[in-house]
Structure formats: structure tokens, C-alpha cells
């Protein structure tokens, strides 16, 4: 061991010197601050004590206006150590100042002490004394020399003692341990020179020495054991070489399987509903080649039958797949309900225990088979199977794990297929409902006529092309509801709606825009034609002869207000003019029509 290279003693020396120096500096600083604060307090107490002692005499001299005596007293205060200025200011204008003026106060260097002067309980003046801290600083710096010398000497002595103890109690003994450790060499198996003795004291280093000797003995024993184990491992290594080769083949197979699983999963994920069958066929062909089998089948349980979703066979003369009834394979399905994996490496093994499955497999030419359940939770959806027609399956546990993952991928594909199918059905249902809602939004539920919104759109469009607007109102309809009831009133509205629709001209839009109010928008027509339309509607309603005891006519009648749209510039204006004509028809006795504000059919005419 080279003590000059990263020596612990050197590091410890530096650490001790550094810590001791820092501690000594901190100690001196604390002592200096403490001495400074104590000196300031002592000076302040001395000034206050002396000043308070002469305050009565000072008050008497001030009261007697004895200026020489006042100056002598102030001079005596100024001789107190650390006092740089004295000032006396009375209430009647007497002012005496000695030394440094208080107006020149430096808050860092000076401290101002003010004492009130009383005479017979009367405040007659204020005594101000200026304390100079520089004198205190000078005294402290003189003391600092002795403090530094004392603490430095104490620190050096402490460092020397610690290093001496460190060297003889630790460093020399550690060097012994180092020499002993360097002498250990197991390459040639030789023992350590007996002259190398370790300190076996009762302290920690002695315990380390004992532990090092015991470790040396254990290492020698372990070395012998290791050499024995190496010879044994060499024999086993030769035996394991064949196993490694088999494991290498297995790993290569698993790599191919995982690569195919990733490829199939991506294709399944991106497949559209129309591409599902093609992707499943691709999967079965690739799986058959990888598994070295003659047949791969993907079966689904649908409506009590086993439906083949895909069937791959290696030889062209294989029997074609066909759907079978689940009852023919009841025991097989029961097994898949209880276990997700069934492997039959040779069907002769189940000839006695499961004759039904044996006969079926024998019939289709299967000699060994492995099946994996495709499930959605607890629901069995189908089976993924691989089979050989000649010889047993070369099966191992890793194949079961891989095939289970493939079955899971098929399950996810089927679940997504069902969800997309269901989504398509829901979209179609939503479109149907939207169409129905759209129709209901523009249709009056009671009469089946158009409601106000599409009527307003048609009227606005008709304003540009010209046309006519008819507002039709059932006379005394409130009385009819009060007399016959709302159900009968609804029946009357439905009958009138059907009649008006049947009697309206071609290309006319009939709408119910209020409780008993209808409106009609028709293409432009001659005034005479418009009169005939109104007359036709009035007569048709009269001929219904719907009883109405609330009307002076005894049956249900209509009032019509019609306008031509040539002079109308907005829907609001057209509706307003038509309402005015309708109101006039009501005023003229009802059962009549008014066109553009002019009655053309006096009440009482054209009656049936």
C-alpha cells in the first residue's frame, strides 16, 4: 500500500485541520460578537449611570441658570469613555453642546442616548449623550490578537494529538491489513507467509483482521469446491448442448409464431366487415404451415349448429368441411365449456372413454387434434382446431400458449365484427328514426297536414313567384268544444282537414297553423278562379252538415280570408292582410269569404 496515494491519514489531516479551523474561526467570531455586545451594553450602562447620578445637580444648576456649573457637569460626562458628544437643551431656550454635534449622527458608528431632566417633577430639559462605537471596535481588535493566538495554539495542539492517536491506533494497523490482503494469491494455490501476522485486538480493526483471516480460509475452501464444480459442470455442459439445440429450435418456432401473431393481429385490426372471411382464410393457411399440420378449422356456434368460418387443408383430397348440429358433438362442447384447451395427441387414447368423438374424428380422417375455445367472457363462441391425418401431434406447452393467443385474436375479430354489424343496424335504425322525426317535425300530429314552419317556407318562396294565400277558420269552434267536448272537436278538425285537402286546387299547400285555423298557399290564379275556390270550399263544408248548436246556422261552417301575393313583400305582410280579410268575414256574419279586403259572397248565399 502506498500511503502517499489517496492516504486516509492525509484526508483525515485535511479534514481535521479544516474542521478545526472553521470551528476556531466560528468560536472567535462568536466571542468577538459577544464581547462587542457586552462592551456596548457596559458603555451604555456606564453613561446612563453617571448621567443619572448628576441629573439632580444638573437640574438645580439649570434652574439656577448657573452656566459655568452646567458646562463643568457636561464636560465630566464627556470624559466618560466612548462618549463623543454631549448636548443639553432646556424648554426655556438654554442650549449647551460639547464635542460632536448630535446632528452629525452616524447610525452605524454612533448611538444616541437621551435622558429627561426634571426639577420638582417638572420636565425642564433633555440631556443627549452620543456614544461612539469606534472606541469599542478599537478595543475589541486589540483583544482579537490574544484571542487568535490562544485559539490557534489550542487548535494546533488538538490536531497534533488527534493525528498521533489516529496514526498509532488506526493507520499502522490498516497498513498491516493492506499488506496481508496484497499477499493473498489464489492463482497458484500457495498459502500466505506465516510471518505476516495481523493485529487481533478486541476493537473494530482487530475484528476486521480476524474476519479477513477467516475469509482467506473460506476462499481457499471455496476455491477447491469451485474447481470440483467446474469439472462437474463441464460434464453437464456437454449433456446440455443437445438441450440447447432443442431450445434454440423452440425459440425460432416461437419467434415465427409471434411474428405471425403480430401480422395477423394487424390484419384483423384493419380488416373491414367485408374482408373478415378473407383474413380468416389467410390466417388458417399460415397457421397450418407453421404448425406442420394437415388441417386447420375455425368453427363458430351459431343457432344450434357448428358453422365453419374457415377450413384449410394441406391435401386436395381432404373431405370438405360442412356444418354439423351441436347435439352431434354435445360432449365435445361440454368439455370446451369447462376447459379452454383440449389436446388429443392420438385419437386411440379416447377410443374407449369418448367413443362419439372418436368415431367422428375417425370418419373425417383425423388422427390427432388440438382445439382451443374462442370465448367472450363465459360465452363459448367457437373453436380453433389444428389436426393431423397421419401420426400424432408433436405437442408442447408453448404451442398451447401460442394457439390460445391466436384464439384470443379471433375472438377480438368476431367481437369487432358483431359490434360493427350492430353499429350498422343502429345507424340504419337511427336514420329511420331521423326521417320519422323529420316528418313529425313538419307535420301536424292531429290532422296529418303540414305545420307552420314548412308552410312559412312555402309562402316565402311563393312571394317571389306570385300566388294566393287563404286563411281558413272554423266558425264558433270554441263553442263547439265547450258543447261537444275536445274529442269531438278533434274529430271535426280531422274531417275538415281531409275535406279541405280533397277540395284544394293542384299544387296547393294546406297547413294547420293554429287550433282551428288552416292556411292554404296556391299558385297565382285569376280573381274569378280564386272566388270559385273559396265558394267550393264553403259549399263543401256546408254539405257535411256537421251539427253545431252553438252556431246560429246549426251546423259547422268556415270563414275565409284570401289575398293575392302580388302586392305583398314579406310573409308578415301577407299573413297580416289575410288575417284582416278573415276578420272582416267574421264581422260580416261568418260562413263567407273576403278576398283582398272585399266581400264577394254576402252571408246567406250558396247555402245547400
UniProtKB/TrEMBL annotation:
Ranges of residues in domain GGDEF: 465-598
Catalysis performed (reactions): 2 GTP = 3',3'-c-di-GMP + 2 diphosphate
GO molecular function: diguanylate cyclase activity
InterPro entries per UniProt: Diguanylate_Cyclase, GAF, GAF-like_dom_sf, GGDEF_dom, HAMP_dom, Nucleotide_cyclase, Rev_trsase/Diguanyl_cyclase
GO biological process: cell adhesion involved in single-species biofilm formation; negative regulation of bacterial-type flagellum-dependent cell motility; signal transduction
Keywords on record: Membrane, Transmembrane, Transmembrane helix
Domain annotation HAMP: ranges: 168-224
Secretion signal, residue range per the UniProt entry: none
CDD domains, per the entry: GGDEF (cd01949)
Any Gene Ontology CC annotation: plasma membrane
Source taxon at top rank: Bacteria
Transmembrane segments: 12-34, 140-166
Class of the enzyme per the UniProt entry, highest EC level: transferase
EC number assigned by the record: 2.7.7.65
SMART domains: GGDEF
One protein family per Pfam: GAF
Protein name (record): diguanylate cyclase
Taxonomic source organism: Shewanella zhuhaiensis
Amino acid at each position: 500500500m502506498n500511503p502517499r496515494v489517496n492516504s486516509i491519514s492525509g484526508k483525515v489531516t485535511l479534514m481535521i485541520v479544516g474542521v478545526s479551523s472553521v470551528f476556531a474561526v466560528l468560536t472567535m467570531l462568536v466571542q468577538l460578537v459577544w464581547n462587542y455586545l457586552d462592551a456596548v451594553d457596559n458603555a451604555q450602562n456606564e453613561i446612563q449611570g453617571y448621567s443619572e447620578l448628576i441629573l439632580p445637580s444638573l437640574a438645580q444648576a439649570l434652574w439656577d441658570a448657573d452656566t459655568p456649573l452646567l458646562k463643568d457637569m457636561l464636560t465630566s460626562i464627556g470624559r466618560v469613555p466612548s462618549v463623543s458628544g454631549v448636548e443639553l437643551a432646556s424648554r426655556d431656550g438654554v442650549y449647551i453642546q460639547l464635542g460632536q454635534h448630535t446632528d452629525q449622527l452616524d447610525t452605524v458608528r454612533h448611538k444616541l442616548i437621551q435622558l429627561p431632566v426634571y426639577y420638582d417633577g417638572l420636565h425642564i430639559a433633555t440631556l443627549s449623550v452620543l456614544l461612539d462605537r469606534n472606541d469599542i471596535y478599537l478595543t475589541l481588535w486589540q483583544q482579537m490578537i490574544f484571542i487568535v493566538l490562544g485559539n490557534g495554539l489550542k487548535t494546533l495542539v488538538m490536531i497534533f494529538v488527534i493525528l498521533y492517536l489516529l496514526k498509532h491506533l488506526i493507520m499502522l494497523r490498516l497498513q498491516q491489513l493492506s499488506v496481508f490482503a496484497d499477499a493473498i494469491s489464489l492463482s497458484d494455490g500457495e498459502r500466505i507467509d506465516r510471518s505476516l501476522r495481523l493485529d487481533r485486538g478486541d476493537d473494530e480493526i482487530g475484528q476486521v483482521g480476524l474476519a479477513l483471516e477467516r475469509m482467506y480460509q473460506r476462499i481457499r475452501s471455496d476455491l477447491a469446491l469451485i474447481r470440483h464444480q467446474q469439472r462437474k459442470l463441464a460434464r453437464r455442459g456437454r449433456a446440455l448442448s443437445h438441450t440447447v439445440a432443442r431450445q434454440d429450435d423452440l425459440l425460432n418456432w416461437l419467434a415465427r409464431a409471434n411474428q405471425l401473431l403480430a401480422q395477423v393481429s394487424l390484419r384483423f385490426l384493419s380488416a373491414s366487415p367485408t374482408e373478415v372471411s378473407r383474413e380468416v382464410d389467410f390466417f388458417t393457411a399460415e397457421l397450418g404451415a407453421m404448425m406442420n399440420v394437415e388441417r386447420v378449422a375455425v368453427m363458430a356456434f351459431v343457432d344450434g349448429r357448428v358453422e365453419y368460418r374457415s377450413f384449410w387443408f394441406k391435401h386436395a383430397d381432404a373431405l370438405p368441411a360442412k356444418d354439423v348440429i351441436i347435439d352431434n358433438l354435445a360432449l365435445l362442447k361440454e368439455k370446451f365449456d369447462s376447459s379452454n384447451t383440449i389436446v388429443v395427441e392420438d385419437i386411440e387414447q379416447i377410443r374407449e372413454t369418448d367413443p362419439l368423438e372418436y368415431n367422428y374424428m375417425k370418419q373425417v380422417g383425423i388422427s390427432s387434434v388440438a382445439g382451443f375455445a374462442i370465448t367472450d367472457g363465459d360465452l363459448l363462441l367457437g373453436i380453433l382446431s389444428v389436426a393431423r391425418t397421419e401420426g400424432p401431434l408433436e405437442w408442447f406447452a408453448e404451442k398451447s400458449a401460442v394457439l390460445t393467443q391466436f384464439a384470443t385474436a379471433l375472438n377480438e375479430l368476431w367481437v369487432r365484427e358483431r359490434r360493427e354489424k350492430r353499429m350498422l343496424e343502429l345507424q340504419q335504425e337511427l336514420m329511420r328514426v331521423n326521417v320519422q322525426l323529420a316528418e313529425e317535425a313538419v307535420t301536424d300530429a292531429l290532422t296529418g297536414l303540414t305545420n307552420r314552419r314548412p308552410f312559412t317556407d312555402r309562402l316565402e318562396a311563393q312571394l317571389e313567384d306570385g300566388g294566393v294565400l287563404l286563411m281558413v277558420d272554423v266558425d264558433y269552434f270554441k263553442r263547439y268544444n265547450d258543447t261537444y267536448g275536445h274529442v269531438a272537436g278533434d274529430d271535426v278538425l280531422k274531417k275538415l282537414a281531409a275535406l279541405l285537402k280533397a277540395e284544394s286546387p293542384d299544387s296547393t299547400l294546406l297547413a294547420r297553423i293554429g287550433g282551428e285555423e288552416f292556411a292554404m298557399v296556391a299558385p297565382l290564379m285569376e280573381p274569378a278562379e280564386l272566388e270559385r275556390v273559396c265558394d267550393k270550399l264553403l259549399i263543401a263544408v256546408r254539405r257535411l252538415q256537421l251539427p253545431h248548436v252553438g252556431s246560429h246556422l246549426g251546423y259547422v261552417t268556415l270563414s275565409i280570408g284570401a289575398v293575392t301575393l302580388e302586392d305583398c313583400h314579406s310573409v308578415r305582410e301577407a299573413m297580416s292582410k289575410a288575417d284582416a280579410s278573415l276578420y272582416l268575414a267574421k264581422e260580416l256574419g261568418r260562413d263567407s269569404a273576403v278576398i283582398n279586403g272585399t266581400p264577394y259572397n254576402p252571408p246567406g248565399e250558396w247555402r245547400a
